[in-house]
Amino acid sequence: MNLICLVKFVPDVEDFKYDVTRNVLIRENVKMILNPDDACALAFCLKVKEKDPDTFVEIVSMAPTSVVGHLEDLLRRNFDQATLISDRMFVGSDTYVTSRILARYLEGKTFDCILTGTHSLDGDTSHVPSQVGEALHLHQMSNIVKIEETQFKTGWPVVDVDSERFISSYRVGLPAILSVSKESKYKLPFVKFKNLELDVSAKIKIITNRELGFRADEVGLEGSLTQVAHTFTKNLQKEDRIFVKTDEEGIDTVYDFLEAKGFI
Amino acid sequence: MDKATLLEELSGFLTKDQINTNYDDLYDASADRYKKYAKARKVLDVPLPTAIVYPNNTEEVSKLLVFCNDNRINVIPRGGKTATEGGLENWKELTLVIDADRLNKIIKVDEYNMQATVEAGVRLQELEDVLRARGYTTGHSPQSKPVAKFGGLVATRSIGQFSTLYGGIEDMVVGLECVFPNGHISRIKNVSRRAGGPDIRHIAIGNEGTLCYITEVTVKIFKHFPENNKFYGYLIKDVDTGIKVLREVMANGYRPSVARTYSEEDAHQHFYHFHKDKCVLIFMAEGNKDIVEATCRGIEASVEKFKDGILEYVDSKLIESWFNHLNWSQKDIDDEFEGMLEKDYHAGFTTEISADWSTIPQIYANVMNRVRNEFPRAHDLTMLGGHSSHSYINGTNMYFVYNYNINCEPEDEMRIYHHPLQTIIVEETLKLGGSMCHHHGIGKYRNEWTKEEHGSAYYMLEKLKETFDPNGIMNFGTIYPQEEGVKFQK
User: Fold this and answer.
1) Which residue of chain A has the CA closest to B416?
2) What ipTM was estimated for this complex?
3) Is the dihedral of CA A103, A105, A110, A116 positive or negative?
4) Which of A192, A255, B58, B89 is the most buried (most CB within 10 A)?
5) pTM for the full model?
């Protein structure tokens, strides 16, 4: 099978420090991580490849070239190829333009299925997979928590989708875009110790606008019809810590706190 | 000899219930807490031992050792299974783990002569409970006290949390009985002191099962006065201040049972209830009333001398509360094991070193600097700090404590995280003339530095091995470096 997995690298929001005196997030030196939902999509691809070693998995990401190290890190886990779509012209593209750029690259490819994550940690709009589906005339399904592996190869897998109130099962005809949720618990394996220094540079391909051929007014800020009107930082306050003893009063305090916060 | 023949021959002189070949038990016996995470995740890369055997007495230990010696079978002596440095890890296809489980008798508590004799498989807690009921204590209190057994405590040169007053196990052992690979049983008699040649107790104490099997131990006992315990706690400016106060107390001849200084990071995890992101200095004075009063005066005077570095006094009740929850029970160990099954997480690791007073702060600073600048996974560290917890007139120890987000497969964790960190600590310590292992023993993962640790005196260590274990059957790979074991280390 030929699988393509769309991934994105996002700032590690867990790593944000908060300056309570200025009420701002400290964004400097925040490390980039693989978007957790995308990691699950990649993990599923590796599961398929494990059972069927002839499976070819290509990772596709649109990002600055600074993510090459992250892509190499992924390739050391047994993926076959990574394609980085990167061009200064694409900077500032909104989700619609991003989807068009991805779709233009993908329309020339042969694949059995495209896997993506559902949500991204930074924007969380979940537009891109469905917009890519629209552009490629493919069905797209989000919030997938399970893909039946045995039927996957037949081209008509059953997927379980988290619809918040219940899990629905759908049979999907491939090729399609399947967007996996991190609730799927598909776990991306780590790089093995013996592969930590593996040279995978030959497996990385960089695609620029020279190959995709957009006009300047079609992409980037200029080509994006949607604009971010306003962003704001959530107000956080530093709260005093409370120390309690392991006596009845202390236990009551902790219980009341957990109850008030809805944990109990 | 193959495994089947080995088991068949064993059944010629042991009963069926003395030979354990249960898979889960053998898996458990194939490694100790050094590889706790890989072990929990069932991805250990070392061979299973052939069997665990349970001798009933010293004579059976002797028979077993002769059998193994004649047939070149590796032997791993085992007690409470609390080893942390690979001392219980198996590197050989043919291995017998000789477990002290049935050597479990408290032979004698001699209050008048202030000593107690136990078999190797007696848990420290068991003797301590017997002694406490009579108003005495062993004075030995490693965190593993509820689980650790005397054979292992002596074989690894263990130390307890009250060592500044009572000393390490080497100061407590009066005499012992041990068995050598050729079956010879040596009994070292119990006397208060003697000048009868070199102190041969020290051939057995700390041998880590590489020279002999310890079967019986006699230790000193001490009167116990818990009602006199006094606690002190301080938030301090830095680790250096803490070390200076500790030195002042020790150099003036005082012997508090607990004398510790913690870095900010380490204090954060131990003293969540008062640390305020500062370094912490604590003391506990114990003993008879007069001694406690004198010790308290000594502590107070030492703190006063370095008052510029003292930021805040801590309520002594908070120190007492911490002190009462120090030890690791079997449940704590089991809970950590369960946690490792569910998450990419464990409770962290430690590496303990020692040096003289002037060198310790330098080692600490060098290690912190190297780890932060050279360790490739420094960004994964969630904790890096240390504390000094065992002091002597001429120096102290440093217990480096570290934990990290485990971003690797369980089988690679040692090579990617723990071992590189331990390597930095050991290298920096040896470079400045300290000892690479204060109280955990060398085990199998610091053996690559055993020669450097001992320098020209390694000759003596080597000759002991050649003399007592010429066939190399005792705990292969522990203390003494082995080419064959490198594949498990690197």
Assistant:
1) A193
2) 0.74
3) negative
4) B89
5) 0.87
